[in-house]
Every structure is written in structure tokens, then in C-alpha cells.
Amino acid sequence: MFDFPVAGIEIPWLLLVFTGFTVGVVGGFVGVGGGYMVTPALCVFGFPGYMASGIDLTHIAGKGVIATIRHRQLGNIDWTLAMSMIAGTMFGVELGTRVLGFFKEQGLSTVAVLTASFVLMTGLFIYTQYETRQAQRQTVKMEREGRDIGREVVASNLPSVFQAVPLMPIIRCHTARVVVSMWVIVLVGMSTGLLAGFLGVGGGFIRVPALVYLVGTSTHVAVGTDLVEIVFSGSYGAMRHAMHGNVDFLAVMFMLCGAVFGAQFGSIATAYVRGPAIRFILSYSLALAGLGAFLPLFDKLTSSTIWLIGAVAVTLTLGQMIFLCAYILSLFGFALLARRGRWVPAWAMPLLVKPGSHLATAQAPSRLVKGRVV
Amino acid sequence: MNQKRAGQALIRMAFWAVVAVLVFSFAINSYLSGEMTHWYYYKASTSGYAINDNSFLAATKDKPILLQVVAADQIVGQQAVKVSKGDLLPTGANGVIAEAEVQDGKRVALEGSNLKVMVPTQIKEQSGIKYSDTYRHKGIETNPLSGPWNVGVVLLMGLSLGMLAQAFTDLFGLEFKPTGQTRAH
Predict the structure, then answer these.
(1) Which of A231, A280, A369, B75 could be joined to B92 by an S-S link, Cβ 3.0–4.6 Å?
(2) CA-to-CA distance for B178 and A361, rounded, in angstroms?
């Protein structure tokens, strides 16, 4: 047990290290901060609600730096894209906070936030599942034809619509291999920032699919670029929280110690899997977070005090962290086994990068076309 | 050439390990010396009574706990110190019970020179999870420098740990790129 004098609780410090590790794995792999998992988990550990948000956001900023360094080494960051997005994101976050303030005045903030979370996450989950399954089928078909697949297959043709917007200035994102109007990037940043500000989250789980499906980057570049955004937005949020006395600095340090290992595993694992694998994990993460938002919403709308709902919400929060972490580590393990020619489950094979195949970064065309390898 | 790269990686690893250890030691030291707590419970953001909530957590409506109101720089045991908005908090304080709350008398009331605490905790909800809310952290203001300072230290910690991990993998020549990777330049 360790006494956290600022938070005023006593809990085993290893619990925080473990939380940092699991969220680090998910964050490094999918490119999300993991606030929707960590905040409720810290509440379960006994941290006051406002402090849970503050600790979470501060640890996200530190973890973001760790994961960003590794993704930079892996060549997954497009700095032009990241810097173009930041201004839009910040503006969007401010706008989202004001929209939330409006609902607060009406006394509807909780219901509005939970409803928006549930609808958005369910919608994203359905689309991501649909598109990723199509991409997986495409992969199997191309493998049968003996074509070199690389590490990314996207079955969506939405990016070509957005890349065709002729508004000047048009910018070339070299790492992402995308040529697109700067206004599209700013608009994407603003929209995702608005949602993030309104829902009170970092916004990684909205930004990653937006970068893949709207801007047209590969999933790996979306993850790396999003982590840069997380460092900036997380640092700003962390500073605001610290000034309001919402941060137990020591708890953050313990979580960072776990995150350093988790973020390494998560980031490195992206080099062994194809884009659809990352989007699969992201979609499951969205489904679980959506369910996590639905339970309190149901509780609120029905004014019920069913203890089971609370118990399920807690189990879900802790369960999803462990489930997602185990899923990612097992994929990583399968990738290593496949490289040694050992047995790997059939479902996992299309998700893994085959030794000898070329990377998207070397071959990607400037635009994504339905069913094409990028 | 490989030996030269390994040597460089070793130097980088040692450098970032030292930075990480220094940052972590700084955090632990500021915790042990009480400086971390002092920066956090810095000033009163409202007029009222500075308290340490651990001293009356067992209070109930049937068995209230009396806190002796004293004028001191330190709170010892079941004591409270009257403070005005903007005053530095006495050592050992971890919250301020606002004067309005005392006048309201539902949870805390003033009885002579004692503060009678009847309801020390309330059940609140955050992100669908219910938790017990106390007087801790209420009515306090942290040191305004703590925001940028905390974030700076956390980012430095993240940077040192990230660079340390990268140097570690470089040292052992571990390549985390899929076989056959070629970069576009």
C-alpha cells in the first residue's frame, strides 16, 4: 500500500503501474489516450472523480511523448499533417467546451454527453467493423492471387471524395503519402476537437478513424500522427487540471513507469500487423466504450438504481483494459510465431505483416482507391 | 561500425537513464519532504475553516466530532484554523470548510469555539461510477506555478523514458521494422 497525500487515499502502487502498462499497450497500438478507460478505473481505485480526470490527462501527455518517440522511429508520424491539424483541434476543443457549457445551463449535460458518446461510438464501431471486414476479405483474395499486399488495405472510398476538394492551399503530406486541401485537414481537426471537447476526452478514438477514412492516411500513420496531437492537447489539458488542483503528481509518475513498457509493446506491435488489425482493436475498444456510456445513460433515463448496472460498468471498465491489452499482446505473439514458421490461428494470418512484404510507405499512391493496396 | 553505433547507444542510454532517475528522485523527494503537499494545499480559495478531514471521517449525525478552532500555523489532531480567502493554509490542512456551509448547519455547525462535524462524506458520481466525496480538496487553491511545473516534469519524464527505451533497443540492435521495409525518401 502507498499513501497518496494529495489524493488522500491508500492503494497499492503496483495497481497504478499495471493500469499505466495496460493503457500504454492500447494507446501505443491504437493511438488513443485511453481516457475513457482510465478515468473510471481510477474512480474505482478510490480517486475522487475530478482528480481521476486530471491524473488521467497528465499521464496521457507523458505517455504520448513515450509512444511518439517510438512511432517516430518507426516512421509513422507525418509532421505536416500533425501541425496542420493542431490549430483546428484546439479551436474545436474550445468550441466543444462551449457547447457543453450550453447543455450544462439547460441541466442536460450528462444525458447529452452520454447520448452523444453512445451514438458516436456505436456508429464508428459499425462502420469500422464493416470496412475492416471488407479489407480483410480483400487481403485474403489478393493473397490467393499471389499479390504483394504490404501492411495496409483500406476498402473505403471516402478519402478520394475528401482528397478531391479543390480548395487552396493544397498540401502534400510526404509520410502519409496524401495530397489534400489544408482546409480538409483543419476541418477534420476542428470536428474531432469539437467532439473531444464536448465529450471531455482526448479524442484519439475519433481522430484515428477520421484520418484513415476522411484524409486517407494509412492506419499506422494515423496512429503516430494522432499521438503527436495527444501530446499537445494532453499537455494543455494537464496544465489546466494541475492549476485547478486536480492532479496527484505521484500517481502520474507511477502510471508513467508502467506506461513506458506498455507504450513500447503497443508501438512496436504496430510494425508487425496490418492496418485492419489496428482498426479491429479500435472498433472493439469503441464498442466497449459505447457500452460503458450506455449503462449510465440507461441508469439516468430510467432513474433506476439497479446495483447490477454499476457492477457491470465497473467490470466492463477494468475488463476492457485487460481484454484489449491481451488481444494486442497475443497478436504480437502470433506475429513473432509466424516469422519463425510456427502455427498461427487462421483468423490472425490476414492481420499480420508477412516477412518480405513491402511497406505502404514505399509504395503508396497519393490517393486511396477502393480495394487498392496502399 | 556496429561497435561504434552500440557505443553511441550506450552513452545515450546512460544519459537518459540518469535524467529519468533524477526526475523520479525529485518527485519522490518532494513527496517525502512534504513540499508536494504544501504546493498542492497552498492557499484558501474561500473564507472558512482549514481542516484535516482525516480527523473527523468517523463522525455521524448521532455521534458528531468536535474540532477545536485555534489560531495556529499547524493543525494537530482534531483542530480547525479560521482562514480568510487568499490566506496561506496551515501545515497539515487538506481542505477548507466554507463559512456558508457552517452557517447552513446541515453538515457542519459552529458551537462556541468548536466546529461540530455531523456529515463528513457525501456520495457523488463521475463517469457513471459512484464515489465518496469528503471535505478534502474543498476551498483550496494550488500554487499557480504547479501547473506548468507539473506538466514540464511529466513531459521530461516521458521524454527521458522514451529516449531510454529507444537507446536500449538500439544498443541490442533490435530492429522493429517489418522485413523488407523500404522507406520513401
Answers:
(1) B75
(2) 12
